[in-house]
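The following block was generated as part of the benchmark described in Methods. Ligand: S-adenosyl-L-homocysteine.
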Amino acid sequence: MQPDGREADRLAQIRQRMVESQLTARGITDERVLEAMATVPREHFVPEARRADAYADRPLPIGGGQTISQPYIVAIMLEVLDCGPGMTALEIGAGSGYQAALLAELCERVWAVEIVESLARRAAVALDALGYDNVEIVVGDGTQGLPEHAPYDRIIVAAGAPVVPEPLREQLAEDGRLVIPVGSRISQRLVIVRREGDEFHEQESIPCVFVPLVGRYGWSPNA
Ligand code: SAH
């Protein structure tokens, strides 16, 4: 069930407070990111039983052992990704679809790959219900990218990888940018890859903790 009008207004206020206390207060300054995060109703992407915690300052379980990331880490990733109008974006690890909705606010066209079919289905329903018609959820192993729509101006990976998967590098547009957590199965650092022509520049950023990116160029699923 979706929240009714009054409940939606109450949640909009909580959402605005989240933006101020969790994002602005911690140094997120990109107006487009702040506006997108003040717009997308996060409560539509968490299980109904968790709706009261939708704007909590932490990740939340979304089923299948997976999580929707803490709002602050989503904001940091979007800020370093630096999306703009007219851009195409690829997300790996669509999970609940929340970050895909934010990308849909910031970019022209978004493809989001999710390996767990039940999550992909739920994400697609939530995005559809909110009227996001510039996002497509695709079921599959996102470590191989999504060659049929490449190249992408922006690629964002929402799960922790052992290394930067080569196909994702290859599917970056010239002047493209990729943000991905890289490290061990339990802790990583955000890595930002910038493509300039045939050259790739890599920069390490803050420590983070994501669920493992499994698949051909990721971790083995049964470790
Ligand atoms: N961005 C999500 C949070 C994702 S959690 C949100 O806004 O809710 C990480 C997700 O990555 C999980 O749903 C997990 O199933 C998925 N995942 C892990 N390995 C993957 C792969 N190889 N391809 C696509 N999705 C993957």
